[in-house]
């Protein structure tokens, strides 16, 4: 076999592609992961690190169940990565909080949680917390917070360490990482994919498109519809503080090292991944309103990053019918779904398993 010919080529080395390549590499010796590199938009390097169940799929039962299943796979996945690579991805599934600053917002969240619980026959668990109950979990909480939803399935992880573990793991398993390769075209010829760009042609029997915001364009080349658009989130990083936050929240989380990540903005600004003063000020104001202790601390870094959003925010897992052996994967919750992608989605690609679950996420749902 020529060195540029593989059984599987995974296009895109973000978290989605890395999880799938890692999963494939456990069963196949011949996996390449082809990535454009630092010039590309990369949601995986700019995210908030939540493994988040609450709220996901309140209006789409299959997604609620898939997210819950994915979060349940996380502990054994983190352990496997630690044992095989020595990298601790710092998973903490303590449960997570979504706080509301007013009663109407809290009530709306409550209704969504009821719906989620009924979708999953009660398997999805949550508790509504008043301000005083919340204070028992986080004494530093402000009296301005109306209350919160606590969900025991939620957690957080260090996404950059996850990246390192996946890349080390897949390469230990024999996968080839091919960075700095921007793919311009993919041709399907006699059952083989020819992957072309400003590099020596790569050939593969199967191809998995995980190119984030570029997936729509690449998908067209192999007959897969993968509609994605960018949605910007901005994040603030503070100096390290004495540990005070035992639970991740949707807006603020404290890393093991002590720094806080402050986030959860959403903007439709095309491919602009910059930062703006007004959004950063809004994030800081909301965080200090929730935690007055933050009023005098320093923000040391900030960035913007582009989410990979499908039209309904749910994942797309789609096989090509015109080019058998081509698959497209896109999602907005690549951290939360990481363990499911490494295990279930790679098994779907390798052996056609889990088709019943996967069929809920076909892009054909956008054409009804
Ligand atoms: C601000 C923000 C906060 C988030 N917070 C969370 C969170 O808390 N929890 C959670 O679960 N998810 C979160 N996400 C979402 C999560 O980060 C994404 O779902 C995930 O990173 C998507 O990974 P990806 O691999 O699909 O895309 P990307 O990370 O964008 O990777 C795509 C890769 O494809 C490569 N590529 C693109 N085009 C080409 C080409 N033509 N040729 C070769 N390579 C190419 C790029 O180089 C890139 O490495 C957040 C996202 C953002 C932006």
The helix/strand class is alpha+beta
According to DSSP, the number of beta strands is: 17
Q: What is the CATH class of the largest domain?
A: Alpha Beta
In helices, the fraction of residues equals: 25-40%
Q: DSSP helix count?
A: 9
CA-based gyration radius: 21 Å
CATH architecture descriptor text of the largest domain: 3-Layer(bba) Sandwich
- Which ligands accompany this protein? flavin-adenine dinucleotide
β-strand amount: 25-35%
Give the SSE string. Answer: EHEEHEHEHEEHEEEEHEEEHEEEHH
CATH third-tier fold name of the largest domain: FAD/NAD(P)-binding domain
Shape: globular
> How many domains, in number, for the residues?
3
- If you average the pLDDT, what whole number results? 96
Q: For this structure, what is the CATH homologous superfamily of the largest domain?
A: FAD/NAD(P)-binding domain
User: End-to-end distance, in Å?
Assistant: 44 Å
Major sheet description: 8 strands, mixed
Which consecutive residue ranges, at least 5 long each, have pLDDT under 50? none
């Amino acid at each position: 076999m020529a060195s540029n010919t593989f059984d599987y080529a995974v296009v895109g080395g973000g978290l989605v592609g890395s999880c799938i390549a890692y999963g494939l590499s456990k069963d196949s010796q011949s996996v390449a992961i082809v990535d454009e590199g630092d010039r590309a938009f990369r949601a995986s390097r700019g995210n908030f690190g939540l493994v988040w169940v609450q709220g996901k799929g309140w209006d789409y039962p299959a997604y609620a169940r898939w997210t819950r299943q994915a979060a349940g796979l996380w502990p054994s996945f983190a352990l496997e990565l630690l044992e095989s690579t020595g990298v601790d991805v710092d998973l903490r599934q303590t449960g997570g909080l979504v706080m509301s600053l007013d009663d109407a917002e809290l009530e709306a969240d409550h209704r969504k949680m009821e719906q989620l619980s009924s979708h999953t026959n009660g398997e999805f668990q949550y508790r509504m917390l008043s301000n005083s109950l919340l204070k028992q979990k986080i004494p530093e909480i402000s009296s301005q917070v109306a209350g919160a939803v606590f969900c025991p399935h939620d957690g957080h992880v260090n996404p950059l360490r996850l990246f390192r573990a996946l890349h080390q793991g897949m390469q230990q398993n024999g996968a080839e990482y091919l960075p700095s390769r921007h793919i311009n075209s993919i041709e399907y010829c006699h059952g083989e994919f020819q992957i072309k760009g400003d590099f020596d042609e790569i050939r593969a029997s199967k191809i998995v498109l995980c190119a984030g915001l570029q997936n729509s364009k690449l998908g067209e080349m192999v007959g897969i519809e993968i509609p994605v658009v960018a949605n910007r989130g901005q994040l603030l990083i503070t100096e390290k503080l004495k540990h005070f936050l035992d639970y991740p929240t949707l807006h603020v989380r404290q890393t093991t090292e002590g720094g806080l990540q402050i986030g959860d903005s959403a903007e439709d600004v095309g491919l602009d991944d910059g930062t703006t003063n007004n959004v950063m000020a809004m994030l800081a104001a909301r965080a200090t309103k929730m935690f007055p202790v933050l009023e005098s601390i320093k923000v040391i870094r900030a960035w913007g990053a582009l989410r990979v959003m499908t039209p309904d925010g749910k994942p797309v897992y789609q096989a090509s019918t015109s080019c058998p052996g081509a698959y497209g994967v896109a999602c907005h919750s690549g951290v939360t779904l990481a363990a499911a992608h490494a295990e279930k989605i790679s098994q779907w690609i390798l052996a056609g398993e889990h088709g019943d679950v996967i069929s809920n996420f076909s892009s054909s749902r956008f054409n009804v």
